[in-house]
Design brief:
The complex is a heterodimer of chains A (about 400) and B (about 150). Chain A is mainly α and about 400 residues long. In chain A, about 70% of the residues lie in helices and about 0% in strands. Chain A contains 20 helices and no strands. In chain A, helix 19 runs antiparallel to helix 20. The longest helix of chain A has 23 residues. The termini of chain A are far apart. In chain A, about 45% of the residues are buried. By secondary structure, chain B is an alpha+beta fold. Helices cover about 30% and strands about 25% of the residues of chain B. Chain B has three helices and six strands; from the N terminus they run E-H-E-E-E-E-H-E-H. A four-stranded antiparallel β-sheet of chain B has the order 2-5-1-6, covered by helices on one side. A two-stranded antiparallel ribbon of chain B has the order 3-4. The longest helix of chain B is centred in the N-terminal third of the chain and has 21 residues. At the A-B interface, helix 8, helix 9, helix 14, helix 16 and helix 18 of A face helix 1 and helix 3 of B.
C-alpha cells in the first residue's frame, strides 16, 4: 500500500477511522474532551505524512498510538490534572478492542445538553474526522472561532456528566431523533449552499450521507434512519441538474431530468420500500416518499401531484412545521387547481402572518388563477421580507414580469 | 446559525458630552465594558468580525457613470447619521442578536449611565433556503426566465 496513496484515499480512510480511534481512546483514558483533541492532532499528522510516506501497515494502530502519545503529553504538561487522575489512567493496559464505537461517539456528540448549532461542528470533527479548518471554512467563520465553538460544546457535555456509554434504553429513541436531526441539518447546510459562491460546502452533504449510511448499517431495522438516508439520496440525485452553469438554481419543472443520478434514485426508492412496516411513518420517510414521487417522474408533467398532496397531508400530521402546509398548498394547486391551493393557505394565515413564504406561495397560486395584479403585489411584499438572496431575486423578477 | 450586522452610528444616545470631555476613569470603564463584551463573544464563538470606522471627516463619496469616477466629501448627511462602527455576529437566534445589541447599547458613559446608543440589527441574507422542506417548496413554485 505504501508510496502511492492518493490524498483522497487517505482522507476517506482517516474519516472512517476517526470515530473508531476516538472511541478506543475514550474507553482507555476516560476523557472525551482531551481524547478528541488528541485524535484531531493525530489525524492532521496522518493527513500530512501518509500521502507522502505511505499508509502504515496498521493505520488504526498508528492513529491510536499517535493520539495516545499526544494525550499523555498533554496530561503531563497539565499540572493540575497530573496531580489528580491521569497517572493512574496511563497505567491502564493498552488493549485494543475490536469494538466499533462510531455510533456511540455520534450519540455522545448529539448530546441533549447541546443545541444543534454546537452539536453540528462537534459531530463533523469527532465523528466525521474533518479538521477544524475545514469546518470553519464550510461555516464561513475563522478557525479560531470554530475551535472555540467546539471546545465549548465539549465542555458542556463534560459539565452535564456525560459518561461514554450508550444512553439508557428508555432514552435511546429520543437521542436517536436528535442524532438524525443533526445529520439532517448537516445535509441541509450543504444542500442549501450548493449554489453560488459557497461551493465548498457541498462536501457537508456528502459527509451527512456518509454518516447516515453508517447509522443505517448499525441500525438497519429503524425505518426513520432508512428514511433519512433515502431522503438525502433522492435529493442529492438531482444535484447535477439543480444549478445552471452560472450557479443559478433551476426550478424542479425545468431541470434536465436525464442528468439526475438514477443509481441514487434507485437506492433511495429501495430503501423506502424495504423500510415499509418498520415502525410508524415518520417525517423523514414521508419526505423521502415525496422526493421519490418527483424523482420517478420522467417529465415534470408526469408528476403524480395527487399522491404528493396526500403525502404532504400525512407529513403535516407528524410535524409541526408550517412550511409543510405551504408545500401542501402548492401540491393542492397542482393537483386540484389554484382555488384548492388558496383554500389550504387560509388554514395557516394566522400562524404565518408576515412570513414571506406565505406571500410567495399565495402570489404563485394567484398568478396561476390569473389574478395578476394581486399576485404582483404579493411577490413584491414577499421580496421585501425574505432573508435569502435566491428567493429575493426570483420574487423581484417575478413581480417585474407581471408589471406590464 | 444566522449572521447579524450590529451597526452603530455617531448618534450618542442619552449622552451629549463628547468623549474628549469625559473623565479618564469614565473612558476606561467604557472601554473595559466593550473589551469584556468582545471577550464574551470570542469565547462563545459568536464573534465574526468587528470594526470601528474612521470619522466622517475622512469619508469620501464615490459615484461613477461607468466612464468617469467622481469623488466628493458629500452629500453631507448629519454627522450623527454616519456609521461609526459595526460588528458581525453569528448567533442561534434573533433573540440572541437583540440581547447582544442591548448590551452594546448599555455601554456606560459619564457617571456610569448607560449611553443607550441606538444599535441597528440587520440580518445578513442567506444564499438560499436553508431547509430541505423550504427548498423543495421553492423549487416547486419557482419558474425560470421565460
Amino acid at each position: 500500500m505504501a508510496g502511492t496513496d492518493a490524498p483522497a484515499a487517505v482522507e476517506d480512510l482517516l474519516r472512517e477511522l476517526a470515530p473508531q480511534v476516538l472511541g478506543i481512546l475514550v474507553r482507555r483514558y476516560g476523557d472525551f474532551d482531551a481524547a478528541e483533541d488528541s485524535v484531531q492532532e493525530a489525524l492532521v499528522a496522518a493527513a500530512v505524512h501518509w500521502p507522502r510516506d505511505g499508509v502504515p501497515e496498521s493505520p488504526r494502530g498508528w492513529l491510536i498510538q499517535t493520539a495516545s502519545r499526544r494525550l499523555i503529553d498533554q496530561w503531563r504538561s497539565d499540572r493540575s490534572r497530573r496531580d489528580r487522575e491521569s497517572l493512574a489512567a496511563q497505567e491502564r493496559p493498552a488493549e485494543v478492542s475490536d469494538q466499533d464505537d462510531s455510533l456511540l461517539v455520534l450519540f455522545m456528540c448529539c448530546h441533549p445538553a447541546l443545541t444543534p448549532a454546537s452539536a453540528i461542528p462537534l459531530t463533523l470533527r469527532a465523528v466525521g474526522g474533518l479538521t477544524t479548518a475545514e469546518i470553519a471554512n464550510a461555516f464561513l467563520v475563522s478557525e479560531a472561532t470554530m475551535a472555540q465553538r467546539i471546545a465549548r460544546a465539549k465542555r458542556r457535555i463534560g459539565a452535564s456528566g456525560g459518561r461514554f456509554a450508550m444512553p439508557p434504553v428508555e432514552e435511546q429513541p429520543e437521542r436517536l431523533r436528535t442524532v438524525l436531526h443533526v445529520l439532517y441539518l448537516i445535509f441541509n447546510e450543504g444542500y442549501a449552499s450548493s449554489i453560488g459562491r459557497e461551493l465548498q460546502r457541498t462536501e457537508l452533504s456528502a459527509e451527512a450521507i456518509r454518516l447516515t449510511r453508517m447509522v443505517h448499517q448499525q441500525l438497519p431495522g429503524d425505518g426513520e434512519v432508512a428514511g433519512l438516508l433515502a431522503l438525502m439520496l433522492l435529493i442529492d440525485a438531482r444535484r447535477p441538474a439543480r444549478t445552471s452553469a452560472t450557479g443559478e438554481l433551476i426550478p424542479l419543472a425545468e431541470q434536465d431530468r436525464t442528468l439526475w443520478d438514477q443509481g441514487l434514485i434507485d437506492e433511495g426508492v429501495s430503501l423506502i420500500e424495504a423500510a415499509a412496516g418498520k415502525g410508524p411513518l415518520g417525517q423523514y420517510r414521508l419526505q423521502a416518499a415525496i422526493a421519490a414521487v418527483h424523482d420517478q417522474a420522467a417529465h415534470a408533467e408526469d408528476t403524480d401531484w395527487p399522491q404528493i398532496l396526500a403525502l404532504y397531508g400525512l407529513l403535516e400530521r407528524v410535524t409541526d412545521n408550517p412550511v409543510v402546509t405551504l408545500n401542501r398548498a402548492v401540491a393542492a394547486g397542482m393537483a386540484e387547481g389554484p382555488a384548492a391551493g388558496l383554500a389550504v393557505l387560509d388554514e395557516v394565515d394566522e400562524r404565518l402572518s408576515g412570513h414571506y413564504r406565505l406571500a410567495a406561495v399565495r402570489a404563485h397560486l394567484l398568478e396561476m388563477a390569473g389574478e395578476l395584479e394581486a399576485a404582483r403585489e404579493l411577490y413584491r411584499a414577499a421580496a421585501g421580507r425574505t432573508t435569502n438572496l435566491v428567493e429575493q431575486q426570483y420574487l423581484t423578477e417575478r413581480a417585474a414580469r407581471l408589471d406590464v | 446559525m444566522t449572521r447579524y450586522l450590529l451597526g452603530v452610528n455617531f448618534e450618542g444616545g442619552v449622552v451629549d458630552t463628547p468623549m474628549e470631555e469625559w473623565k479618564p476613569e469614565e473612558i476606561t470603564a467604557h472601554l473595559d465594558y466593550y473589551k469584556a463584551l468582545r471577550e464574551e463573544l470570542l469565547a462563545s464563538g459568536e464573534r465574526v468580525q468587528s470594526e470601528v470606522l474612521a470619522g466622517p471627516d475622512l469619508a469620501k463619496i464615490v459615484t461613477s457613470d461607468g466612464r468617469e469616477t467622481f469623488v466628493t466629501d458629500g452629500p453631507f448627511q448629519e454627522f450623527k447619521e454616519w456609521l461609526a462602527g459595526y460588528q458581525i455576529v453569528d448567533v442561534e437566534s434573533e433573540e440572541r442578536a437583540i440581547e447582544i445589541a442591548a448590551k452594546l447599547s448599555a455601554v456606560p458613559g459619564p457617571d456610569g449611565v448607560p449611553t443607550q446608543q441606538p444599535i441597528q440589527v440587520r440580518q445578513v441574507m442567506d444564499q438560499a433556503p436553508v431547509d430541505i422542506a423550504e427548498m423543495e417548496g421553492y423549487l416547486q413554485t419557482a419558474r425560470g426566465r421565460d
